[in-house]
Amino acid sequence: MAKLKELEKLGPKKGVISQSVKDVVQSLVDDDLVLKDKIGTSVYFWSLPSCAGNQLRNASIKLESDILSGKKHLEELNELRASLMLDREESNEREQALEEVTLYADNDPVALETMRNAIQVAKSAANRWTDNIFTLQQWCSSNFPEAKEQLEHTYKDVGLFF
To answer: By 3-state DSSP, what share of the chain in percent is helix, strand and coil, each rounded to 5?
Structure first.
């Protein structure tokens, strides 16, 4: 058992900056690696090796049970899939319906929304580059007034003059 003041005094001896001891202890308390209890007006901190072992053991047991339940759920889903595949018949009617679905894939609302978003992004990028070009033209004209005609010819040659 130790008080925070005692830990702050021990910190520099162990290579820990005394100002960060409080933060380190608080993070250890938050992670349940160190226990904290208020006795009277003092706050005591302690850690028992068996507590850490118990926490690891409990975490291991929980993870193993999660794995088992996940495997059981996977088996149930595989059985359901197998039973559904048995009920499905491969027929000409089904193949024709699948072909018809592929014909209408161009009218898919999700694909259309994705395309609209891409168009919006491209439009904003084009506007941004246009603004950048005009800003560059203004900057060059104001900083190099003697070369204004030469810059205008250069803009026309590369297709930047609108």
So the answer is: 80, 5, 15
